[in-house]
Amino acid sequence: MSQPIDYSTVPNLLRNVVKYIHPDTHPFLLHKSGESWQEISYRDVLSTADAISAWFLEMGITKGDRLSLLIENSPEYVFYDQALQQIGAVNVSIYPTLSESEMEYILVDSGARVILVGSVFLFKKIIRIANNCPDLQRIVPVFDDYANHVQGHAVNAGIIGLKTLIDEGHKCLSKYKDQITALREAIMPSDISSLIYTSGTTGIPKGVMLTHSNFVENVKVCLEQIPVLDNDETFLSFLPLSHVFERTATYHVCCAKGCKIAFAQSLELLARNMAEVRPTVMNVVPRLLERIHDKAVKSATSAGGIKASIFNWAMKTGEGYRKLKESGREAGVALKLKQRMADKLVFSKIKEKTGGRLKFMISGGAALPKNVGEFFGNLGIKILEGFGLTETSPVMSVTEFHRQVYGTVGRVIPGIEVGIQDVDTKNFITVQTHNSFKPDFECAEGEIVVRGHCVMKGYWNKPEETEQVIDADGWFHTGDIGRFFKGNLQITDRIKNMLVNAFGKNIYPTPVENTYLKSQRIEQLFLIGDKREYVTAIIIPSKEALQEKFGVTEDFFQQPDLFIEDKEIVSWIAEDIKRLSTELAKFERIKHFKIKRTLFTIEAGEITPTLKAKRKVIEKKYAEQIDEMYAQGIEHL
After folding, report:
1. More confident residue, 254 or 505
2. C-beta pairs of 219-224 under 8 Å, 24+ apart in sequence
3. In what order do the strands lie in the sheet with 90-93?
């Protein structure tokens, strides 16, 4: 029996849970303190949020005011967000990895009045830019010794520690209790819940206005699409809550369904946290799944012998079993026995590293390589792919639990329309809805456009930019190229990423890059070829693979030379480039490459917080090396 849906705004999600699903003493949040995981109940979350709301009202915060968060995933994020949401304020979350100038831009553009800050490192950044943000009135560090880090800075904004703030809020809560309730009940679904600033691969970041309705309707339809999600699931949260994917697909889903959220300590400790928490659901990005895949394959096959033979046999068995199940047929007795043996010998050992309880993982943020999805399917770990943008709050489509089509991002969610529009003529190739789904439907590719409840209200303070992406008929133009395949949406690439070579051939970098990223020797790859006669690339090798193969030390990666010229390393990379090039059309194949010593980073401005390459930045920064590759002529690899 499904629980009643008694919510239309974000702050009512938790109240629906304690009304219909769990008692308020039930644990909601888990976080690591020392060596143990501590539980925080719904009662404690709501009580703390009320105290913070009271403090906000005491300092004059009113409906529609923007309040900012610069903090890693943590219970404090939830306390603060719940507090501001229920009085009608607007969440302005900032990626912790952004530069000071980008943080300053967001604070000024949004007019944020208060900012929650999660670490000493981030606090020092805010202290340096605070006086450039005229609307900023309070800085709220979550740690106690902040005074030691203010010395030498005359900061106009007041500073108050979160613990002190909560204590002050509890003292005046009785004064504001009824007002908090009235404000919460007065929130309209069309009110803005959050400003999420786009990553900005091109131009200045824009504040995406997402309403309570955007978030809540997205959650409702996602729960419809994944009916196997129970109210006793445990999610492990590690993707940033400052990004819309984790905000909706973990935080808001758990708020609506009554699931627990465990906050990972860091990406470096993720593997340990998975073993400790033993999550049943996780939201992930493709690169994490690729790394798990690469390590599992390498560990099992690098030494050859019987271990490699058993692994390959198990994967073949898993593939046969998976394909039968996906076709709706029942495996025979012999195959079932083989599958059990494969699980015992191989699959269970890999699954145990994830905690051994995973029902499924949801992959988003980028395209998941087809072979990686199939690998996890062979293991018996289901990967559901979703697609959307910040501007679509975010989900437009998601894989159905019972119907997997690898290499696609699933079925259109209920309540919206998704169209494929010819890039040149602007004519519609097709318009599909959840109800028009046919498992054999296919169409030509074009720009993906969407209309419906998931589409943002617009860009904050940017009406012209809003008009450029939402047309007169209400269609939001995603800038993504895709098509429908077997009834599911399939993403090809971004329009702005598309390369058109000197002979007029269109090259979509993402699928080409994903082909080469199958190599365990390559960590990152950036394709070049727009208006050029052939394709080249900047390649960053796997640090681990380099150390294992050539015995290089940390000093090797700290050398001032940005690019590696060692002939042995170049030949080693070239072997995999040649091997994988056979999977591509001739005009898509890499003819020359340069090996960059270190990764593209957010700090260097080369990639966005969602790990998308900033094409113009990279091409300008490494123009000399790129020109060198084209000066060599086409015959190389």
Report:
1. 254
2. 219/13, 219/248, 219/252, 219/253, 219/256, 220/5, 220/256, 221/395, 221/413, 221/414, 221/415, 222/248, 222/249, 222/253, 222/395, 222/398, 222/413, 223/253, 223/256, 223/257, 224/413, 224/414
3. 158-159, 138-141, 114-117, 66-70, 90-93, 192-197, 207-211, 458-459
Q: What are the φ/ψ torsions at residue 218 (nearest 5 degrees)?
A: -60, -45
Distances (CA, A) of 240 to 45, 60, 101: 20, 29, 20
**Which residue in the block uniquely carries the two structure tokens 């004519």?**
427
Residue 583, number of CB atoms within 10 A of its CB: 12
CB atoms within 10 A of CB 125: 18
Tell me the two tokens of residue 96: 């912790």
The set of residues, in sequence order, having a beta carbon less than 8 Å from that of 6 and lying 6+ positions away, is 12, 16, 19, 20
Percentage of residues in the chain with pLDDT exceeding 70? 98
Architecture of the 12-187+226-280 domain: 3-Layer(aba) Sandwich (3.40)
Is 618:600 a contact under the CB 8 Å cutoff?
yes
- Residues 487, 438: contact at Cβ < 8 Å? yes
| DSSP strands (E only) in 154-307 | 158-159, 192-197, 207-211, 234-237, 260-263, 281-284
Per-residue pLDDT tens digits for 599-626 = 999 888 898 877 788 888 999 999 999 9
Residue 636 has pLDDT above 70, yes or no: no
| Common-topology check for domains 12-187+226-280 and 499-631 | no
Residue ranges per domain, the chain? 12-187+226-280, 499-631
The full DSSP string for 254-297 is HHHHT-EEEEPS-STTHHHHHHHH--SEEEE-HHHHHHHHHHHH
Around Cβ 267, how many Cβ atoms within 10 Å? Answer: 11
pLDDT at position 287 is: 82
pLDDT digits (tens, 9 = 90+) for 342-401: 999 999 999 999 999 999 999 988 778 889 999 999 999 999 999 999 999 999 999 998
| CA–CA dist 482, 421 (Å, integer) | 9
Alpha-carbon gap, residue 312 to 378, rounded angstroms:
11
Assign domain 499-631 to its CATH architecture: 2-Layer Sandwich (3.30)
